[in-house]
Amino acid sequence: MLRGDSKLTSESHGARHPGEMTISQLFEAQAQVRQEQVALKYPDEKLTFKELNQQAKPAWPSFAKARGNADVMVAICLDRSLEMVVAILGC
User: Fold this and answer.
1) Which of 11, 27, 30, 66 lies 20 to 30 A from 20 at CA?
2) Can you tell me the distance from the alpha carbon of 70 to that of 64, in angstroms, rounded to the nearest whole number?
3) At what angle do helices 82-90 and 49-56 cross, to 10 degrees?
């Protein structure tokens, strides 16, 4: 299971990044580089990296406050959808 605060290093994903970055930080970096490229498509809907980042980012402070610290897990119960990925990135 991946958690939003999970640390990824260059060894774990094969890319070179200075220091450790969270999943949210890695995604946000990609969103800045690939703003207009399609990030998600399911089944006939699509979101660009920019749109996905704009939808997920406002959820970060809410989830952080609800979790209190990195040891508290947040449950997400959604059908497969674009919204499910937004919620996961928002964690």
Assistant:
1) 66
2) 8
3) 60
Residue-wise pLDDT for 3-61, tens only, equals 444 444 444 445 545 567 777 788 888 889 999 999 999 888 999 999 998 888 776 66
Predicted TM-score of the model (pTM): 0.62
- Nearest residue to 4 (alpha-carbon basis) of 61, 79, 49: 61
Structural element, H or E, at residue 21 = strand 21-22
The continuous run of DSSP H or E covering 40 comes out as: strand 38-42
Quote the CA–CA distance of 82 and 91 in Å, as a whole number. Answer: 15
Q: Contact, 86 vs 59, CB < 8 A?
A: yes
